Amino acid sequence: MMELMRLDVQKFVDSFEREISALGPKYESGHLESHFGLNPTFLAAGNVFYFVTLAVLYLIMRNRAPLQLTNFMRAYNLSCVILAGAVCYGIIMNCIRYGFISYYGNGERMDARTEGGKHLLCFIWLYYIQKFWEFLDSFIFILRHKWNQLSFLHVYHHSSITIISFAYICLSGSGDVALGAFINSFIHVLMYSHYFLTTFKWSACLVAPVWYEHTGLHSGESLRKAKKKDTLVLVTALADTVVSLSMVEKHLQVKNLRMARPETLTETLGLQGGAVTSLGLINDKEHRVHVYFDRAMIAAGKVNDILVHPTSGNDITLAISAPALLSYVASCGHTAHLMDFDTGDVVDA
Known about the structure:
- This protein has helices at residues 2-21, 23-29, 40-61, 70-98, 115-133, 136-143, 152-172, 177-198, 245-252, 262-269, 295-300, 322-331, and strands at residues 202-203, 210-211, 217-226, 232-238, 257-259, 289-294, 306-308, 318-320, 336-339, 346-348.
- The chain is α/β, with parallel strands linked by helices.
- It has 2 domains: 13-199, no CATH class; 210-214 and 230-348, YbaK/aminoacyl-tRNA synthetase-associated domain (YbaK protein, Alpha-Beta Complex).
- Strands 3, 4, 5, 6, 7, 8, 9 and 10 form an 8-stranded mixed sheet that branches. A two-stranded antiparallel sheet has the order 1-2.
- Strand 3 and strand 4 (232-238) form a beta hairpin.
- Helix 4 runs antiparallel to helix 8 (177-198).
- The chain crosses the membrane at residues 42-61, 81-100, 120-143.
- InterPro entries: ELO_CS (IPR030457), ELO_fam (IPR002076), YbaK/aa-tRNA-synt-asso_dom_sf (IPR036754), YbaK/aa-tRNA-synth-assoc-dom (IPR007214).
- Its main location: membrane.
């Protein structure tokens, strides 16, 4: 079985090498036009640049506040709409001028020595080069701390689509690529139009525009109580932050911080069971609760609002900026401890 797999892999490698070696004659004969970036060197360098930039941006941004990139995102999303729209337009015009039926399996439709092939290749090249431009999707996620969107599938898609597009154009070279490029570009017109509109907090809708609900930083809050001491701790952090209670215990010099009982929550903060919110600190007249905020959340909250629940329950979400939240906590007579849950460092607000 392993021997058969090795043979299959070797056949693939040999076939790929033959196709790559045939690129030179294709360019020399005029079958392919030497458009910018349409070569293996640019393809490899582009993907190396993508992964290196991802790593560098991550190292730079992981301990910094997220950036506000609204205007840049508007320009970027609009540029993607225009580029993808141009590809759709070019392929449609190619169909009208030179006929649609002759696309499938027809190598002449991508032959730059023919008028139709030269026209089609120009727009398929634009489709290919746009895939490198769309690397900015990933970079924007990092700069804005959208870690949940920077998934393996996202990175795999952006790196592999350049290789697939290159292979279709240079190694396959038939008109079949036009259909895939058109469908993908049409979807991208819709997708980036939606992204563009959401920067204005508008949703793309076929009937009428509708206002988006306010978006912000999702937080998680819990009230903890030490097992052998009457110490209460309110911990608030970003929803995807791994909260280390041992760091809080070390700072307070207590042990075994456990989830407080619902009756303790009601007695201390005037809240219903399961509806923990820092806004309930106004009811802690005796200042029994120690307040710990995720330092990364507070830093991010200077750019994007933090989403919290009101004291009435979990059926409503409020948006509040980090400075306003800290001011509220101080007005309730509490000191907010800002903890870095990576290092355990604590500073008072």
